[in-house]
């Protein structure tokens, strides 16, 4: 059973950072195995009041017990900070989160691709000139991107992590998949999909984070041996 309290995490990160192999773990140079300070209860209350929704329990307890961001999967957890009187997450892709719509339900329970069913791009052989083809191709990709990257696909998603090359992972805040971690693979024409553990079960925040922690510790320890 996955541990859902976080009282062990800072000590584990500290021990892990001391291993010679820790620097070989992907993304560790960015977060340095450090967590930002946890949120105070009144800060969390202010954050949730601004969002208009209570955060899923596993992530909520992480913010209170472990930290508001920092060491975590890939380049680390986007930290949540109070800036100019407004709470927001910071990081490469954190702005994909629509803070004003987190209380609206993310409607999906299965993987989906916003590009599914869209027309194929134009074929150069169908045009009399390179200029005409270039214009048609540019117009096609503008229309396609407007559909694929429509912010409505991200309603109810809280982006927490950047994997590199514009691949990101997010926590479902509202809707039938609330509490699950999903991947945003739009950068690779892959759409959105839920994340699974080795047992075939969908990952919530706690299993997602601890799976990374275990893998990072195994990798760093093997390099250290």
TrEMBL record:
Pfam families: SMI1_KNR4 (PF09346). The lineage of its organism: Bacteria, Bacillati, Actinomycetota, Actinomycetes, Streptosporangiales. Transmembrane segments: none annotated. This is Knr4/Smi1-like domain-containing protein. It comes from Nonomuraea thailandensis. Residues 38-211 form the Knr4/Smi1-like domain. InterPro entries: Knr4/Smi1-like_dom, Knr4/Smi1-like_sf.
């Amino acid at each position: 059973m996955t541990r859902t309290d976080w009282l062990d995490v800072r000590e584990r990160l500290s021990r892990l950072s001391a291993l010679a192999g820790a620097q070989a773990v992907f993304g560790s140079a960015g977060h340095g195995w450090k967590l930002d300070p946890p949120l105070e209860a009144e800060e969390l209350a202010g954050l949730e009041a601004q969002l208009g929704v209570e955060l899923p329990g596993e992530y909520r307890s992480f913010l209170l017990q472990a930290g508001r961001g920092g060491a975590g999967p890939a380049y680390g957890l986007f930290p949540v900070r109070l800036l100019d009187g407004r709470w927001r997450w910071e990081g490469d892709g954190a702005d994909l989160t629509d803070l004003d719509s987190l209380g609206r339900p993310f409607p999906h329970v299965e993987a989906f691709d916003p590009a599914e069913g869209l027309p194929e791009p134009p074929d150069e052989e169908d045009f009399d000139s390179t200029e005409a083809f270039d214009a048609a191709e540019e117009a096609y990709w503008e229309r396609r991107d407007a559909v694929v990257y429509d912010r409505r696909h991200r309603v109810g998603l809280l982006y927490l992590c950047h994997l590199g090359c514009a691949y990101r992972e997010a926590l479902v805040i509202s809707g039938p998949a609330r509490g699950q971690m999903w991947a945003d693979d739009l950068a690779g024409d892959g759409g959105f999909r839920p994340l699974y553990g080795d047992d075939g079960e969908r990952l919530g925040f706690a299993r997602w984070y601890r799976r990374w922690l275990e893998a990072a510790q195994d990798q760093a320890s093997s390099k250290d041996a």
